[in-house]
Amino acid sequence: MQGRFFRFLLISLVGFSCSLFEAEELPPQWVEASLHGAPPLRDILSECEAALQASNFPLPFHRDDLERAVVSGWDVAPHPFSRKGMRSRGIFEVNPLEKGAWLLRVRVEVEKNDEVHQPLELDSAKWKPMPDDAEVARIVLQHALTRLRRAGTRIG
Q: Is omega for the bond preceding 78 within 30 degrees of 0, making it cis?
């Protein structure tokens, strides 16, 4: 009886400790704005690319007109101290609302380098997801909205 209890306790503790080390999923933090009377989709995506460039995200940008998305390259900020290096990239999505209206969404995905021994070597980097940077996403979105307003788009 006592052996069964300890076996059950050991199995329970092993299962619980393994669940502590699983990587948790971080929900994306999108910043959104609705566009009315907007130009064609290709022009909206071009303005999204320009907004990413104005926000100093590096090339190359991956633009997918079918998915209505633009993704920047990674902006890598290496650091000589362990677990201090970061990288981020901007992601735009354009989703249809009603006729002639679009929902413009942006997020800034952030990852931290967990490499301990060679933190400056990007080839050996171990990137770990971090919470999105909503503040930078708002700035990137504002760049896009400013450019779209010049084209006569109503926001909101």
A: no
**DSSP H helical ranges for the chain:** 2-20, 41-54, 134-150
Contacts of 131 (CB under 8 A, 6+ apart): 26, 29, 110
Sole residue written with tokens 């329970």: 12
Tell me whether residue 98 is in a domain. Answer: yes
Q: What is the pTM of this model?
A: 0.79
Closest CA to 69 of 48, 86, 50: 48
For residue 34, being part of any structural domain is answered with: yes
What is the tens place of the pLDDT at every residue in 106-120? 999 999 988 777 767
Contact 49, 148 (CB under 8 A): no
C-alpha closest to that of 132 among 16, 56, 25: 25
Residue 100 in domain: yes
Going by C-alpha positions, the residue among 120, 152, 134 that lies closest to residue 30 is 134
CB 103 within 8 Å of CB 95: yes
Report yes or no on 5 lying in a domain: no
